[in-house]
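Please check this today:
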Amino acid sequence: MKSNRLERLRRLRGTLPTLKTETTAAAPEETLDLRTAEDMPYGVRLAASWAWRLLIIVAALGVIFWMLSKVSLLLISLMIAALLTSLLSPVVKILNSKLAVPHGLAVGITLIGFLALVVAGLSLAGQRLSVGFADLWTQALTGIQQIQDWLFNGPLQLTNDDLQTVLDDALTELRGNATNILSEAISWGSALGQILTGVLLTVFCLIFLLLDGRKVGLFLINLLPRRARPAMDGALTRGWSSLVRYVRVQMVVALIDALGIGFGAFFLGVPLALPLGVLVFIGSFIPVVGALLTGALAVLLALVSNGWVNALIMLAVVLLVQQAESHILQPLIMGKAVSLHPLAVVLSVAGGTMLAGIAGALFAVPLLAVVNTVVKYLSRRGWDTDPFVAETYGTELAGAGPPDSSPDLPAENMSAPTSIPAPTTRLPEHPEDKNHEH
């Protein structure tokens, strides 16, 4: 009897630590340890989480921008070649599909015709300018004599000694800065060499983009996972269409600039109105610098040929056309063509100019248009109803998510909207699952 009681006490003592453990485990729920509590409010912790993530993103973008700046010549040449490819690819397509011209021959005809058109336009403008400047040389000499008469006989009443003093000061300043002038000349020479190298790279890239542009795109797309290839292929195809529309609209804007300044010079009696319009058309594709140089040339021609009153009127015409192009044509026509708000177009050009100068102003709008189109296509699952995706990757993919083209998956798994294959059969429920549900 006593042994049975002792055995029960031993069993009871064996169960007491378990009860004590459960009691101590539940103790922290009743007491609060202030040392482990959060001292920062939730809003501050949330802002800090966003802040360090944004700093990492900005740092990554800065590193990418710095790396691209080291190969800026190659990058700019490739992007200019892409713009020219979007302009000339429809011509190649028409020659190849409509006129049954072989693809390589169509590319050669298109490229030679484009280069001949550019050279002919520049030659026509240069020839007319050379002939016109020969006729204007006498008027320029007369204008210089008038300036001299005004300096000596006008309100300034300068003398030969005053003029000689000004010339001596200018020569002294020139000799003092001879080293800086030489270094600037050398830098301009190296810049000219880079420009020539960039032109050759652009032509080289243009040839191969016209020949194998689709193959280059497929090479980049095939680097992605198989499920993402149809969606990205459709997105990049839509982005390329936006780039083609941008180039066409840019041609329309350049033509309007050329007609506005050319007709303004013609009605004001400024000589060389036709070559001036050609130069304005070509210069309109170069932001900031092109408009500045062509506008200054138009005002200079008006000043030499017709006097300062006519030059002021010509300056007003140039400013009016350029302001209308910058604030009306570019935002409205360009924004509508590439599905961008006019404010986005203006801000992108301004931001691109501040970040990368002329190259940033040239590529800001097309890059923004392509990125906008690609993001919208992916966010709206545009590949679900895209005929291009259905035709390229199979009609069974229309209306489905990004497919997995792996051959060892069953056909019904191709329609699964997520990256996990949909099970074809339902597994039997385990008895414990029913208990958990209850």
